[in-house]
Specification:
The chain is of the alpha/beta class. The chain has ten helices and eight strands.
Length: 221
């Protein structure tokens, strides 16, 4: 089964994707992780990507398309995967369709109120050691990473001004491409404003009630 996670920045796409991947043994493909790895390596594409991400702007499509094509060609994702963060613009969607990068079975559209999204972005923390993501809005009191006891870090783009810009870009550039998948009958809309575990259960129930071919059977195993 091939899933695409869709929603505004901080809607919980990555978190729900990881929970789904763990339960159903599917590899995840995170465009954000691919970009951050490139930035950490200091390569040419990473330096270019960082200059855009720090301002809350979209990384040029030619950069992200080249990265995603390479990842989708790898052996471990041929039988199924969960894709998070691509496509984000009409021109990326065109590449996605024209080059038949893959056939997506399900598009999970996660809807979250703007006020909740803003609270999340200000409260997001990422473990410097293992990459585990935590949010202070969950009120779990984690002073250090619960997985490896690593220190928390704050991403440079996690601030109100940058997020407002990212959200506007999402509304103008990304949200309109959802209609393409809606016309194909592949969209399942999920309310994701709750804490991760509850939002995940809401998502699974939406899957069970969906008419998308093979989805209910996949979830039920």
């Amino acid at each position: 089964m091939k899933f695409l996670m869709f929603g505004a920045p901080m809607a919980g796409k990555g978190t729900l994707a990881n929970m789904l991947a763990e339960d159903y043994n599917l590899p995840t493909i995170s465009m954000g992780d691919i970009l951050r790895a490139s930035i950490a390596s200091g390569d040419e594409n990473g330096v270019l990507a960082k200059s855009y991400m720090d301002k809350g702007e979209m990384v040029p499509s030619e950069v992200v398309c080249a990265m995603i094509k390479k990842r989708l060609a790898e052996k471990d994702v041929q039988d199924g995967f969960i894709l998070d963060g691509f496509p984000r613009t009409p021109d990326q969607l065109k590449v996605f369709v024209d080059e038949k990068i893959t056939d997506i079975d399900v598009v999970v559209n996660i809807e979250v109120p703007y006020e909740t999204l803003l609270t999340r972005v200000i409260g997001r923390r990422t473990c410097k050691s293992c990459g585990y993501i935590y949010n202070t809005s969950w009120n779990l009191g984690y002073e250090k990473c619960p997985k490896c006891s690593g220190e928390w870090g704050i991403r440079s783009d996690d601030n109100e001004e940058t997020y407002k810009n990212r959200y506007e870009v999402y509304l103008q550039e990304t949200l309109p491409i959802l209609s393409y998948f809606e016309k194909l009958g592949k969209v399942v809309t999920v309310q994701g404003q709750d804490e991760p575990e509850q939002s995940y259960e809401t998502m699974l129930k939406a899957f069970e009630n969906s008419n998308i071919k093979g989805l209910k059977e996949f979830i039920e195993g």
